[in-house]
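Dock pyridoxal-5'-phosphate; give full complex structure.
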Amino acid sequence: MALVNEHFLKLPGNYLFADIAKKVNAFKATHKDADVISLGIGDVTQPLCPAVIEALHRATDEMATVQGFRGYGPEQGYDFLREAILKNDFLPRGIHLDIDEVFINDGAKSDTGNIQELIRWDNSIGVTDPIYPVYLDSNAMIGRAGMKDDEGRWSNVTYLPCNAENGFVPELPSHRVDVIYLCYPNNPTGTVLTKDELRKWVNYALKNDTLIFFDAAYQAYIQDDDIPHSIYEIRGARKCAIEFHSYSKTAGFTGVRCGYTIVPKDLTAATLQGERIELNPLWLRRQSTKFNGTSYLSQRAAEAIYTPEGKEQVKETIGYYMRNAAMLLDTFRRLGFEVYGGENAPYVWMRTPNGTPSWQFFEELLYGARVVCTPGVGFGPSGEGYVRFTAFGNYEKTQEALERIEKWMK
Ligand SMILES: *Cc1c(COP(=O)(O)O)cnc(C)c1O
């Protein structure tokens, strides 16, 4: 008899966005002609930039020739891309990394989900709340998160609430935890940590021998100078942190698939006997066993983002989304809503009026204004009473959605 991994049975039945789709479909079934505008799901909408398209065409033509054909690539990724990353994403910020500390991946979701394989099953986990669901679900799948209570809290997880009351800056845990997940700029709240605030976390980690998994998927959206793009801008971080990057939100790669993970060589974790083990070779071992690399085409496409034209074009698309974010913030504020984020991230986080529960507000907005948002409680218990709006939509559609909301309010 093959026994199932019963940890899967403790997971919430549905992915959040499947629940949203179900409710939207129910609405559409009873409102046949209604056209619904979604400011819900966090996917990009603008096409790939010309520099990326050209690189994809060139790489495709190379693959059509005997000389240019590429099969399995190097496990950690091609040097051309890893060198471009070091030179463009880190050196200008005074961060000197070795090329072997860069691991090209097929997007940050895989690595943020897989990285927990490097640590023992009984490490304790700390997360900011609300949070990107992948971090907790991936730990729950192997039993590390423990059991779930009625409010959806895992027993082996320390939740660090982020809400309007603390300005969305999580407090350090009152006890030590083994591993902490941080995501800044944050999905779902769209809020950021300053360098001083992030430094507190690095110092906590160094003092408590805590490992930080830092998700920087939205770093390209940072507009303010004092907001760190990488945790390695903080001294000591390479002794305590792994960092995840993605081209998905940076350059519209949600369908192309490419990103990278930094595992510094200074980073170690302990055996039960107290021996320190380097995590960089362990991650290489894991990847070369279970992952056969990101496609050559995707890596050439990612390289093109670092050319002068590529940089300019990517900046333009990010500007397009940030214009949406500014419009969302302005309009919501004018209408008297309490909103956060949206200044260094493509998400706007709204407190629902009069403490309306997230899912109730979601339905009111859907039926009243035919606009879809994402219920905050889907990202964790502290998200209750909030909803998320994405700036990743088409500008005119976003504008129309806001006009509908304004009309609905009156
Ligand atoms: C979108 C997103 C990612 C990136 O996912 P990919 O697999 O690279 O497409 C990672 N982390 C967060 C928090 C995200 O929202």
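Observed: The mean pLDDT is 96.
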